[in-house]
Amino acid sequence: MSNYHIKHLEEYYQVYRKSVRNPENFWEEIAEEHFVWRKKWDTVLEWNFSKPEIKWFKGAKLNITENCIDRHLLTKGDKTAILFEPNNPDEPAKHITYKELHQQVNKFANVLKSQGIKKGDRVCIYLPMIPELTFSVLACARIGAIHSVVFAGFSATALATRINDSECKMIITSDGSYRGTKTIDLKSIVDEALENTPCIETALVVKRTNSEISMKKGRDKWLQPLIDEASNSCEPEIMNAEDPLFILYTSGSTGMPKGMLHTTAGYMVYTAYTFKNVFQYRDNDVYWCTADIGWITGHSYIVYGPLANGATTVMFEGVPSYPDFGRFWEIVEKHKITQFYTAPTAIRALAKEKLDYVDKYDLSSLKVLGTVGEPINEEAWHWYNDNIGKKKSPIVDTWWQTETGGIMITPIPFATPTKPTYATLPFPGIQPALMDENGEEIKGNQVDGKLCIKFPWPAIARTIWGNHQRYKETYFSAFENCYFTGDGALRDEVGYYRITGRVDDVIIVSGHNLGTAPIEDAINEHPAVAESAIVGFPHNIKGNALYGYVILKETGESRNQNNLRKEINQIITEHIGPIAKLDKIQFTKGLPKTRSGKIMRRILRKIAAKDTSNLGDTSTLLNPEIVEDIIKNVL
Ligand code: WTA
Fold it and tell me: How far apart (Å, rounded) are the C-alpha atoms in residues 512 and 398?
């Protein structure tokens, strides 16, 4: 029996038990059977969560692009690898076959080499969702360069911070990008960022919008002429299993974004195996994940997981509301999508529009629906199930993280009975645990606690780029010998998990992780601001929205408050990006603080959520009187 494709619940339990009884054997069998290795491993797993150090398939040699492209050429050379759907529905879709993908990636890889990029160099990719984004990711992997994709909605400051943190030598970008009716001048954002990034030697520019842009002599080069000249054959760099594949930044509770480092072999094995099982991908399926490749979901489940399986994966350049709210469903009908994977925030936004937008289209090709990024509420789950899946396509509510590299808790469609708002059961190889306040594991069912993972899985991030100490403190110090996720969860009577949300200062807004600290730092740069605190509050489309409590300096008190609000959001947009703008800003004279000076965010969260019935004991605060004042003026 191949354990590659789980088909019913009994089989899930069998595979799961095996994966836990002997994880090394389990992963070794999968690695043996389904991938191309230049050399096999000496050991399957070496690990130590207290160092922490994790090594999968040590001694093995491979190149991930050989697994994602070359090995499909003989049997699937003419199959569509990437199906590109442009922002403008009148622009024809592009079907890029595995043969074409091979050529493009090889040429691109040769261009990188000709520009001096070598194994281990970091390359920043700041591109819209166009095929060149996937080509550039794979071209880096082809030659062993480490890609660091930065979501093209981040501001110049945020981009520069990420470039400098990992000392990228090159940036790949485009003249502009299309999003709905808007054309965004991407290159000028890059120009601004590159004023403060001494490590960047070259900027390669893809032509997409034909906008007028400035090209800095010696630094900026159009990609196309270089591609035209490049040879279409580039031998893959033979990588060690634990050689870095990419860095991807994610927000932390405090401080700088964390550059999560993923390595080659384990990440490949895990994303490919989860993709195949979680989406039950079959040969002629057309799979579509609506995420952006700037996030981990795009890395693992638009690029690497699908391509390692020889799948057809859709890249959509646009937005769900353009030209109207039927766009997703139009695309499903047009390309006969079989698996559709999106975020709860998108579902909620579409669910509030007329059903006509859905009913106009034939969605009968759909077999599996997925969600990711934040808890899905019951109402959205049912809307998705009733109107999109027509109650026949199982919904896989997949819980995972940038740090986990791949899906961790999820139903297996047609095997695991689904339950609204529950991510259900751990994927084979994943050993979750719920912890109490004292760091003890809570056994049994119908319990809730902090979610940890007790045993390594192949795609776990190996470190934070340049800061192993922070990696240790963030993930391996809260609970002994466990990876701590930062999420809370409950386990129901049959052992299904429901993720209840973050238990730290990360706030998930429309599926994007935002740390409070960088936003507060940005606000505090406003000359009229003395101090600020950000919390999340429930929002019926975004899941959470941001609420800011701001203390003004004396000089700011006479200013027009609405103007100040606009200026504060402008600063946030410049420092981070529009995704971090505040929905509400309340000016206050003080913030509730403990005697040691720590802001009591718990109280601020409750006030912002208008849930002040049980604020707990506030008498021990340094300034208890401020609480009443804040409640009185809540927005
Ligand atoms: C949250 C996205 C509930 C969670 C792949 C996690 C979820 C954070 C789910 C990671 C889900 C993700 N149900 N919550 N199905 N999926 N989350 O790093 O809080 O962007 O810790 O990775 O999103 O977000 P990230």
Answer: 15
Q: What would you measure as the largest C-alpha separation in the chain, in angstroms? A: 74
Alpha carbon separation from 366 to 37, 166, 333, 419, 581 (Å, rounded): 34, 41, 9, 19, 35
Pocket perturbation via mutation, ligand 1, pick of 399, 483, 484 by most ligand atoms within 8 A of CB:
399
Cα distances (Å, whole numbers) of residue 177 to 32, 159, 185, 210, 459: 42, 16, 7, 10, 32
Judged against a pLDDT cut of 70, whether residue 3 lies above it is answered with no
Instruction: Tell me yes or no: is domain 506-632 CATH 3.40.228.10.
Output: no
Among 64, 78, 132, 80, which Cα is nearest to 312's?
80
Q: Whose CA is nearest to atom 8 of ligand 1?
A: 401
Structural domain boundaries in the chain: 506-632
Q: What's the chain's average pLDDT? A: 95
State how far the alpha carbon of 506 is from the alpha carbons of 257, 308, 503, 510, 542, in Å: 11, 32, 8, 13, 15
With a CB cutoff of 8 Å and minimum separation 6, the contacts of 446 are 490, 491, 492, 493
CA of 472 to the centre of ligand 1 (A): 20
Q: Does residue 337's CB lie within 6 angstroms of at least one atom of ligand 1?
A: no
Closest CA to 584 of 542, 545, 612: 545
CA distance 286 to 310: 11
Residues 3, 14: Cα–Cα separation, whole Å = 10
**Rounded to two decimals, what is the model's pTM?**
0.94
Taking the C-alpha atoms of residue 321 and residue 328, their distance in angstroms, rounded to an integer, is 8
Q: What's residue 598's pLDDT?
A: 80
Q: Are 11 and 425 in contact (CB under 8 A)?
A: no
Distance between alpha carbon 164 and the CA centroid of its chain, in Å? 21
Q: Is 577 in the pocket of ligand 1 (CB under 6 A)?
A: no
Decide: 397 in ligand 1 pocket, CB within 6 A: yes
Written as six digits, the tokens of 277 are 């099982």
Bridge partners of 370?
341, 396
Q: How far is the CA of 566 from the centre of ligand 1 (A)?
A: 30
CA distance 635 to 630: 10
Q: Which atom of ligand 1 is nearest to the CA of 297?
A: 5
Helix (H) or strand (E) holding 520: helix 516-524
Would you say the CB of residue 375 lies under 6 angstroms from ligand 1? yes
Amino acid in the structure at residue 315: M
Relative to beta strand 312-316, strand 80-85 is parallel
In the predicted model, what is the mean pLDDT of residues 167-177?
Answer: 98
The SS3 of residue 487 is strand
Closest Cα to residue 340, out of 278, 283, 294? Answer: 278
Q: CB of 374 closer than 6 A to ligand 1?
A: yes
Say how many C-beta atoms besides its own lie within 10 A of residue 228's C-beta. 9
| Centroid of ligand 1 to alpha carbon of 417 (angstroms) | 21
**Cα–Cα distance, 106 to 104 (Å, whole number):** 5
Cβ atoms of 303 and 138 within 8 Å: the answer is: yes
With a pLDDT cut of 70, the percent of the chain lying above it is 99
Asked if residue 446 lies in contact with residue 498, where contact means CB atoms within 8 angstroms, the answer is: no
Q: Is 584 exposed, middle or buried (0-12, 13-18, 19+ CB in 10 A)?
A: middle
pLDDT digits (tens, 9 = 90+) for 71-99: 999 999 999 999 999 999 999 999 999 99
- Summarised one tens digit per residue, pLDDT across range 532-546 is 999 999 999 999 999
Ligand 1: which of 270, 290, 400, 430 to mutate, most ligand atoms within 8 Å of CB? 400
Q: How many residues are recorded in the chain?
A: 635
